Amino acid sequence: MELKSTRDAYGDALLTLGENPHVVVLDADLSVSTQTSKFGARFPSRFINVGCAEQNLMGVAAGFAIAGKIPFASTYAIFSMRAWEQIRNTIAHDKLSVKIAVSHAGLTNAPDGASHQALEDIALMRVIPNMCVIVPCDAVEAMCAIISETSRKGPAYIRLNRSKTPVIFDEKYHFRFGDAVPLTDGDDLTLIATGTMVHKALEASDILKKEKISARVINIHTIKPLDEGAVIKAARETGAVITIEEHSIFGGLGGAVAEVLAEHYPVPMKIIGVRDVFGESGEYEELLEKFGLTTTNIVASAREIMRRK
Amino acid sequence: MCDETEPMITTNDISLLEQRARTIRKHVVNMIFEAGTGHPGGSLSCVDIITVLYFAHMNHNPSDPEWVNRDVFILSKGHAAPTLYATLAECGYFPVDELLSLRKLGCLLQGHPEISIPGIEVSTGSLGQGLSISCGIALAAKMDIKDSRVFALIGDGECDEGLIWEAAILASHYKLDNLTAIIDRNGLQIDGPTEKVMRLEPIAGKWREFGWHVIEIDGNKIADILGSLEEAKQVKGKPTLIVAHTLKGKGVSFMEWICAFHGKALNKDEIRLALQELGGE
Hints:
- The complex is a heterodimer.
- Chain A is built from 13 helices and 14 strands.
- Chain A is α/β, with parallel strands linked by helices.
- Chain A folds into two domains: 3-166, Rossmann fold (3-Layer(aba) Sandwich); 181-308, Rossmann fold.
- In chain A, strand 6 (132-134), helix 8 (139-149) and strand 7 (156-159) form a beta-alpha-beta unit.
- Chain A is globular.
- The longest helix of chain B has 22 residues, at 14-35.
């Protein structure tokens, strides 16, 4: 299986988007890591490095949006949170078309440790009115989502990763903002996954099939606005839901799904994510193992939820 | 120069601008009295600056607020919203009648500037953000080789915000000579004199060291404001900062240099006296 990071896809997407003279890219001194340096080399007059100043990154990007440009603002996911209030009060409140495309989300900045990992960002972005949250599951979806976002008005938080992860989709894939993507059929339970956890959910579903547990897998690339209809339908048809995300168990995909199901169709549910702790240094796969973001844990959780049905 | 086809004034008639400023001040105290809350001190201190910008300096068009070649004004110290609202209304962006609805439920005129109000470029109120946003607009204008200029009015207390300095180094680095920042240097912030709460001096020196062209003026003197804006226009290769020394509460004697009027509305007796001093209803 081909491996590619979603940040690499972002770098490639920007080169394509650079043909659009309205596209402007801003970075805060991490342009090699976020891959915006490729755009900077090709389109230097439309690339702005603000230095390591994330609040200013968001403010300047907002100014570009007001002036009619389509700014992409990039840094590490965790450091974009430093500008949460700028994002809330200016970008989201005024519905400015600033595309906040951040890399190294979740645990993917593994060796750097807790200070450089972001496990709270989906929650922090999701709570802001007008903000849309997109978490692509592979390089193809990332490419499609980023290109699609240039023609959608309004702000977006696009969560990208450093680690090379399996490419799930092929070139025929069509990204539709806000739509859940059903990946496998199943009647016994539903695995709702986002980002890097989607391929693990698929692996888990294969294992469960051998145990005669039929797990439906749904990829949620748009966490906000959530495809509530798809979530409710899955709960109704399978009677149990497990969410899986490389994020805190609080306020992320699990929170979003739980909010919908609690109001509309409560079923047994399990939220797989990082359980209210900070990350630490290590190899990426080691960290996933330590925090239970593994195929094995998904399979075990599926067995457990089947007993609760 | 409110409207190219029908200029609101034809000369920089200082006494006419002073009259305009008095009218705006009357609106401001009335608006805040009617609302029962607001920030009169810092609204009155910057009346002359905003009056000169809108009635004698900026290219803008009230009948077409989004005119692409307009100059852009950002009120980074968003709590002076009443002054900007009164100015926009007097320019014709929306009816003067709207002014007394300030801060009321469902009204157009929110407590701090909102993008939904005609003539307001971006919502502000959270300090420090306006200068950063202005840098983005100025960069975009340069990218598009447009002549439009950007003006950001910031508070002196607002300079405590780190973001102001992030924006200051960026504006200098990118040689944003189409950007003029104006500090409403009234010397008071909520908790007291700026030099007591968090020392800013030497404020002009700091900005000069950051690479800005710095002009110091009496920010309540129309001629000074006009002159400094003309000077800023001529400066090439660097942004300009105008340190406008003003009086908080300017125009109403019992409010001048009184810290309590930063965020306190006038009562019935005070509004009567204030309007008497400002000469009219």
